[in-house]
Protein backbone atom coordinates (compact mmCIF):
# COMPACT_ATOMS: atom_id res chain seq x y z
CA UNK A 1 0.00 0.00 0.00
CA UNK A 2 1.48 3.34 -0.97
CA UNK A 3 1.82 6.16 1.57
CA UNK A 4 -0.66 8.26 -0.37
CA UNK A 5 -3.41 5.68 -0.03
CA UNK A 6 -3.19 5.95 3.76
CA UNK A 7 -3.50 9.72 3.91
CA UNK A 8 -6.68 10.60 5.78
CA UNK A 9 -6.48 14.37 6.25
CA UNK A 10 -9.52 16.38 5.30
CA UNK A 11 -7.40 18.58 3.04
CA UNK A 12 -6.32 15.57 1.01
CA UNK A 13 -9.85 14.16 1.00
CA UNK A 14 -11.10 17.34 -0.61
CA UNK A 15 -8.41 17.11 -3.25
CA UNK A 16 -9.30 13.49 -3.96
CA UNK A 17 -12.88 14.62 -4.48
CA UNK A 18 -11.55 17.05 -7.07
CA UNK A 19 -10.64 14.05 -9.22
CA UNK A 20 -14.00 12.35 -8.92
CA UNK A 21 -15.61 14.44 -11.63
CA UNK A 22 -17.82 11.94 -13.40
CA UNK A 23 -21.32 11.75 -11.97
CA UNK A 24 -20.80 14.55 -9.48
CA UNK A 25 -21.29 18.27 -9.32
CA UNK A 26 -17.57 18.95 -8.88
CA UNK A 27 -16.40 21.53 -11.40
CA UNK A 28 -14.07 20.43 -14.15
CA UNK A 29 -10.67 22.14 -13.77
CA UNK A 30 -9.78 24.99 -16.08
CA UNK A 31 -8.22 24.18 -19.40
CA UNK A 32 -4.44 23.96 -19.57
CA UNK A 33 -2.80 27.38 -19.63
CA UNK A 34 0.44 26.23 -21.26
CA UNK A 35 0.59 24.94 -24.81
CA UNK A 36 2.57 21.73 -25.33
CA UNK A 37 0.62 20.07 -28.15
CA UNK A 38 -0.35 16.43 -28.39
CA UNK A 39 1.70 13.46 -27.25
CA UNK A 40 3.43 11.42 -29.92
CA UNK A 41 1.43 8.45 -31.22
CA UNK A 42 4.69 6.49 -31.41
CA UNK A 43 4.56 5.85 -27.67
CA UNK A 44 1.74 3.35 -28.31
CA UNK A 45 4.37 0.90 -29.53
CA UNK A 46 5.11 0.23 -25.85
CA UNK A 47 2.01 -0.72 -23.81
CA UNK A 48 1.58 1.75 -20.96
CA UNK A 49 0.59 -0.89 -18.41
CA UNK A 50 3.57 -3.07 -19.28
CA UNK A 51 6.01 -0.21 -18.86
CA UNK A 52 4.38 0.96 -15.63
CA UNK A 53 4.64 -2.55 -14.18
CA UNK A 54 8.31 -2.70 -15.18
CA UNK A 55 8.89 0.71 -13.57
CA UNK A 56 7.10 -0.33 -10.39
CA UNK A 57 9.33 -3.41 -10.12
CA UNK A 58 12.49 -1.42 -10.71
CA UNK A 59 11.43 1.24 -8.20
CA UNK A 60 10.68 -1.38 -5.54
CA UNK A 61 14.10 -2.93 -6.08
CA UNK A 62 15.78 0.47 -5.78
CA UNK A 63 13.96 1.29 -2.56
CA UNK A 64 14.77 -2.14 -1.11
CA UNK A 65 18.44 -1.65 -1.95
CA UNK A 66 18.44 1.83 -0.40
CA UNK A 67 16.72 0.46 2.70
CA UNK A 68 19.30 -2.31 2.96
CA UNK A 69 22.02 0.34 2.90
CA UNK A 70 20.13 2.35 5.54
CA UNK A 71 19.83 5.17 2.99
CA UNK A 72 16.03 5.21 2.71
CA UNK A 73 14.39 7.94 4.78
CA UNK A 74 11.79 6.89 7.31
CA UNK A 75 8.25 8.22 7.11
CA UNK A 76 8.95 10.74 9.89
CA UNK A 77 12.08 12.19 8.30
CA UNK A 78 11.47 15.98 8.08
CA UNK A 79 12.64 16.25 4.47
CA UNK A 80 10.44 13.33 3.39
CA UNK A 81 7.45 14.80 5.23
CA UNK A 82 8.09 18.02 3.32
CA UNK A 83 8.30 16.23 -0.03
CA UNK A 84 5.13 14.26 0.56
CA UNK A 85 3.28 17.39 1.60
CA UNK A 86 4.22 19.08 -1.65
CA UNK A 87 3.24 15.97 -3.63
CA UNK A 88 -0.22 16.01 -2.01
CA UNK A 89 -0.81 19.40 -3.55
CA UNK A 90 0.40 18.48 -7.04
CA UNK A 91 -0.95 14.96 -7.58
CA UNK A 92 -4.66 15.92 -7.65
CA UNK A 93 -3.96 17.89 -10.85
CA UNK A 94 -2.08 15.11 -12.62
CA UNK A 95 -5.07 13.42 -14.26
CA UNK A 96 -5.71 16.48 -16.39
CA UNK A 97 -2.53 15.57 -18.27
CA UNK A 98 -2.91 11.79 -18.27
CA UNK A 99 -6.10 10.01 -17.28
CA UNK A 100 -4.13 6.91 -16.27
CA UNK A 101 -2.76 8.90 -13.33
CA UNK A 102 -6.07 8.39 -11.55
CA UNK A 103 -5.17 4.72 -11.07
CA UNK A 104 -1.48 5.14 -10.31
CA UNK A 105 -0.27 4.13 -6.85
CA UNK A 106 1.74 7.27 -6.22
CA UNK A 107 4.80 7.01 -3.99
CA UNK A 108 7.34 9.56 -2.81
CA UNK A 109 10.59 8.49 -1.18
CA UNK A 110 13.86 10.11 -0.18
CA UNK A 111 17.26 8.46 -0.66
CA UNK A 112 20.31 9.52 1.30
CA UNK A 113 22.92 10.31 -1.34
CA UNK A 114 25.13 13.23 -2.36
CA UNK A 115 23.71 12.98 -5.88
CA UNK A 116 21.85 16.07 -7.01
CA UNK A 117 18.99 14.14 -8.54
CA UNK A 118 15.26 13.36 -8.58
CA UNK A 119 12.95 11.36 -10.81
CA UNK A 120 9.41 10.18 -11.39
CA UNK A 121 8.93 6.83 -13.09
CA UNK A 122 5.90 5.83 -15.18
CA UNK A 123 3.14 4.92 -12.75
CA UNK A 124 3.85 7.76 -10.31
CA UNK A 125 6.94 6.50 -8.49
CA UNK A 126 8.86 9.56 -7.26
CA UNK A 127 12.23 9.73 -5.55
CA UNK A 128 14.44 12.60 -4.44
CA UNK A 129 18.06 12.41 -3.34
CA UNK A 130 19.15 14.32 -0.27
CA UNK A 131 21.95 15.88 -2.31
CA UNK A 132 19.46 17.95 -4.27
CA UNK A 133 17.89 19.33 -1.11
CA UNK A 134 21.17 19.83 0.74
CA UNK A 135 23.13 21.42 -2.10
CA UNK A 136 20.49 23.60 -3.75
CA UNK A 137 18.63 24.43 -0.54
CA UNK A 138 15.45 24.95 -2.59
CA UNK A 139 12.39 26.70 -1.31
CA UNK A 140 9.12 24.75 -1.27
CA UNK A 141 8.18 26.54 -4.49
CA UNK A 142 11.39 25.36 -6.14
CA UNK A 143 10.96 21.79 -4.87
CA UNK A 144 7.49 21.85 -6.40
CA UNK A 145 9.04 22.85 -9.73
CA UNK A 146 11.46 19.90 -9.63
CA UNK A 147 8.67 17.53 -8.66
CA UNK A 148 6.25 18.95 -11.21
CA UNK A 149 8.88 18.66 -13.93
CA UNK A 150 9.59 15.02 -13.12
CA UNK A 151 5.89 14.19 -12.84
CA UNK A 152 5.39 15.82 -16.24
CA UNK A 153 7.86 13.43 -17.86
CA UNK A 154 5.79 10.52 -16.55
CA UNK A 155 2.42 12.10 -17.35
CA UNK A 156 3.43 13.00 -20.89
CA UNK A 157 4.98 9.52 -21.27
CA UNK A 158 8.31 10.76 -22.53
CA UNK A 159 10.06 7.59 -21.35
CA UNK A 160 7.51 5.45 -23.14
CA UNK A 161 8.09 7.40 -26.34
CA UNK A 162 11.90 7.27 -26.07
CA UNK A 163 11.86 3.52 -25.47
CA UNK A 164 9.39 2.96 -28.28
CA UNK A 165 11.67 4.76 -30.70
CA UNK A 166 14.78 2.88 -29.61
CA UNK A 167 13.07 -0.52 -29.61
CA UNK A 168 11.33 0.08 -32.92
CA UNK A 169 14.69 0.90 -34.46
CA UNK A 170 16.55 -2.05 -32.97
CA UNK A 171 13.82 -4.55 -33.78
CA UNK A 172 13.10 -3.16 -37.22
CA UNK A 173 9.41 -2.89 -36.46
CA UNK A 174 6.98 -0.21 -37.61
CA UNK A 175 3.82 1.12 -36.01
CA UNK A 176 1.88 -0.65 -38.76
CA UNK A 177 3.41 -3.98 -37.88
CA UNK A 178 2.55 -3.51 -34.22
CA UNK A 179 -1.05 -2.72 -35.08
CA UNK A 180 -1.20 -5.90 -37.16
CA UNK A 181 -0.42 -7.95 -34.10
CA UNK A 182 3.36 -8.17 -33.86
CA UNK A 183 3.85 -7.85 -30.13
CA UNK A 184 7.64 -8.05 -29.84
CA UNK A 185 7.92 -4.51 -28.54
CA UNK A 186 5.35 -5.19 -25.83
CA UNK A 187 7.35 -8.23 -24.72
CA UNK A 188 10.62 -6.31 -24.67
CA UNK A 189 9.01 -3.48 -22.67
CA UNK A 190 8.63 -5.75 -19.64
CA UNK A 191 12.43 -5.76 -19.29
CA UNK A 192 13.00 -2.04 -19.81
CA UNK A 193 12.65 -0.81 -16.24
CA UNK A 194 16.40 -0.54 -15.75
CA UNK A 195 16.68 1.85 -18.72
CA UNK A 196 14.21 4.40 -17.40
CA UNK A 197 16.66 6.33 -15.25
CA UNK A 198 19.33 6.61 -17.93
CA UNK A 199 17.12 8.03 -20.67
CA UNK A 200 18.12 11.35 -22.16
CA UNK A 201 15.05 13.23 -23.19
CA UNK A 202 14.94 15.47 -26.23
CA UNK A 203 15.00 19.24 -26.00
CA UNK A 204 11.28 19.18 -26.84
CA UNK A 205 10.62 16.72 -24.01
CA UNK A 206 12.48 18.90 -21.56
CA UNK A 207 10.68 22.06 -22.63
CA UNK A 208 7.35 20.29 -22.38
CA UNK A 209 8.14 18.95 -18.91
CA UNK A 210 9.17 22.44 -17.79
CA UNK A 211 5.85 23.93 -18.88
CA UNK A 212 3.59 21.14 -17.65
CA UNK A 213 5.50 21.07 -14.36
CA UNK A 214 5.14 24.84 -14.09
CA UNK A 215 1.38 24.53 -14.42
CA UNK A 216 1.13 21.58 -12.01
CA UNK A 217 3.04 23.56 -9.40
CA UNK A 218 0.92 26.68 -9.94
CA UNK A 219 -2.29 24.69 -9.57
CA UNK A 220 -0.87 23.33 -6.33
CA UNK A 221 -0.31 26.85 -5.03
CA UNK A 222 3.40 27.25 -5.72
CA UNK A 223 4.80 30.48 -7.17
CA UNK A 224 5.47 30.27 -10.94
CA UNK A 225 8.53 32.50 -10.63
CA UNK A 226 10.27 29.64 -8.82
CA UNK A 227 10.71 27.83 -12.12
CA UNK A 228 13.32 30.31 -13.32
CA UNK A 229 15.00 30.65 -9.91
CA UNK A 230 15.30 26.85 -9.64
CA UNK A 231 17.09 26.51 -12.96
CA UNK A 232 19.41 29.40 -12.10
CA UNK A 233 20.45 27.38 -9.05
CA UNK A 234 20.82 24.30 -11.24
CA UNK A 235 23.02 26.20 -13.67
CA UNK A 236 25.19 27.46 -10.82
CA UNK A 237 25.49 23.94 -9.40
CA UNK A 238 26.53 22.66 -12.81
CA UNK A 239 29.30 25.20 -13.28
CA UNK A 240 31.83 23.08 -11.40
CA UNK A 241 33.89 20.20 -12.74
CA UNK A 242 31.70 17.34 -13.89
CA UNK A 243 28.46 18.91 -12.79
CA UNK A 244 25.58 17.10 -11.06
CA UNK A 245 24.10 13.92 -12.52
CA UNK A 246 20.72 15.62 -12.84
CA UNK A 247 22.09 17.97 -15.48
CA UNK A 248 23.32 15.08 -17.66
CA UNK A 249 19.68 14.37 -18.53
CA UNK A 250 18.22 17.81 -17.69
CA UNK A 251 20.56 20.39 -19.24
CA UNK A 252 20.15 23.95 -18.03
CA UNK A 253 20.70 27.17 -19.92
CA UNK A 254 19.51 30.73 -20.50
CA UNK A 255 16.96 29.64 -23.12
CA UNK A 256 15.31 27.33 -20.63
CA UNK A 257 15.14 30.03 -17.98
CA UNK A 258 13.80 32.56 -20.47
CA UNK A 259 11.04 30.17 -21.55
CA UNK A 260 9.95 29.66 -17.95
CA UNK A 261 9.93 33.41 -17.36
CA UNK A 262 7.76 33.95 -20.45
CA UNK A 263 5.26 31.29 -19.38
CA UNK A 264 5.03 32.17 -15.69
CA UNK A 265 2.39 34.89 -16.30
CA UNK A 266 0.18 32.33 -18.09
CA UNK A 267 -0.26 30.34 -14.87
CA UNK A 268 -0.13 33.23 -12.39
CA UNK A 269 -3.93 33.25 -12.17
CA UNK A 270 -3.98 29.54 -11.33
CA UNK A 271 -1.44 30.12 -8.58
CA UNK A 272 -3.43 33.02 -7.10
CA UNK A 273 -6.64 30.99 -7.25
CA UNK A 274 -4.97 28.05 -5.49
CA UNK A 275 -3.60 30.32 -2.77
CA UNK A 276 -7.03 31.77 -2.11
CA UNK A 277 -8.60 28.32 -1.97
CA UNK A 278 -5.83 26.92 0.17
* Strand content range: 5-15%
Overall morphology: globular
Radius of gyration: 18 Å
Sequence of secondary-structure elements: HHHEEEHHHHHHHHH
Helix content: 40-55%
User: For the report, how would you describe the main beta sheet?
Assistant: 3 strands, mixed
Q: Order the strands across the largest sheet as they lie in space.
A: 1-3-2
Number of domains: 1
Structural class: mainly alpha
How would you name the oligomeric state of the polypeptide chains in this document? single chain
CA(first)-CA(last) distance: 28 Å
What are the low-pLDDT stretches, counting only 5+ consecutive residues below 50?
4-29, 170-190
Mean pLDDT: 78
Give the strand tally.
3
Q: What's the number of helices? A: 12
Characterise this structure.
By secondary structure, the chain is mainly alpha-helical. It has one domain (39-189, 197-277). It is 54% helix and 5% strand. It contains 12 helices and 3 strands, in the order αααβββααααααααα. It has a 3-stranded mixed β-sheet with strand order 1-3-2, with helices on both faces. α3 (78-90) packs across α5, α5 crosses α10 (226-237) and α9 packs parallel to α12. The longest helix has 24 residues, at 254-277. The chain is globular. The two termini are 28 Å apart. 41% of the residues are buried. The model is unreliable at 4-29 and 170-190 (pLDDT under 50).
Task: Describe, in short, the structure shown.
This protein has 278 residues and is mostly helical.
Amino acid sequence: MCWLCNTKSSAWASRRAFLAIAGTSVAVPAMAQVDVGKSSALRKLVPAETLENAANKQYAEMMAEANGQKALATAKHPQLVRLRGIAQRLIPHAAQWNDRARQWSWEVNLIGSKQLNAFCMPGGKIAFYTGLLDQLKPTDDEVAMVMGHEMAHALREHGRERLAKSQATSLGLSLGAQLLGLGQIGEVAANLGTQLLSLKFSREDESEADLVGLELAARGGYAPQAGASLWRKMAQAGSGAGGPKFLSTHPSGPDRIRELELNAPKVQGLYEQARKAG
